Amino acid sequence: MKTKKLSRLAWLAAMTLFSLSLTACDKKENANVPDNVQVVVDTGPGGGSDIFARQVLKIAQQTHILTGNWPVLSKPQGGGLAAMNFLAERPGDPNYISAFTSKWVSTGLTADNKEAATVDKLTVIAMIADEQQVVAVSAKSPYKNFADFIADAKQHPGQLVQVGGAFQSVDNLASLQIQKNTGTSWKYLSFADAGPRVTALLRGDAQVMIGAQNDFSEQVAAGQLRIIGVLSNARNKQFSDVPTLLEQGIPMEGIPEELQFRGIAAPPGISPEAVAWYQNIFSKLVKTPEWQKYMEEEGSKTQYVTGDELKQKMSEYTSDITKLVTLLKEKH
């Protein structure tokens, strides 16, 4: 009887060790797969990237692509530098991603600290949206289109004002190229958030502002602002009566077609399994009707790109932005 009891205990002990061994192996095999994801953004609460990230997560949960909660971490310092550094300091960790924008490319190129992290040092997982840029003016403005603004800028060099984000933001970089293309010049008034920019436009402190459709939709609907141009080869669906800058005869050489895009990045050196895990989630997300509706409301379009095509696009975009940054450095 005693021998049988000992044998039974030995068998249970062996099974326990075997189970623990399987669990350890399973954890080892899945060590590179995210299990506690947090999303880093480069703006404070209510900023563009914060809103975008939360909307992405909301849609993913509504469509049951995600079942858990991914907290959003705000790292707004340095126009993307703090967020990039945060990721760079966690090499190989698959539990952090960021909803980044194309602004990160120009931010890295203009950083005073040459040791600061840049997008090319991170793992770029996917491009997911192209955020079309438009030009807005006060409803009281005499400009009927952007060509009118250019004509006025030629008559009053260095006197007109554009309001926008950081000096290295794509709205300022694009305007510097437009000034070069048209032989004009104007001032640039910088604010960190969209709210003060729109206020400056309404107050008459600036004549124009370049931004995304959602930066202006509320004020346009209220009759406070008007859209006078689109920085794209195609018109904006919501403001379909507004011609593109090209249609208005404004040369657009040197300005990337996808001027402002949004994507997903992670720390350097995360595993191919982790990259594939995230790509599986976001490839499903961008196919949902909820996502397509969100893109239409924002005046954006789905631009899901990964792999070698993404590397090529990032390389070409960086080359274009490097030239625009040269204009910025010449002016400042």
From TrEMBL:
Determine if Lipid biosynthesis is one of this entry's keywords.
no
Q: Which Pfam families match?
A: TctC
Q: Which SUPFAM superfamilies match?
A: Periplasmic binding protein-like II
- Alphabetized InterPro entries for the sequence: BUG, Bug_dom1
Recite the UniProt keywords alphabetically.
Answer: Signal
Q: Where is the signal peptide?
A: 1-24
Q: Which CDD domains match?
A: PBP2_Bug_TTT
Q: Which protein family is it in?
A: Belongs to the UPF0065 (bug) family.
Protein name (database record): Tripartite tricarboxylate transporter substrate binding protein
Write down the species: [Pantoea] beijingensis
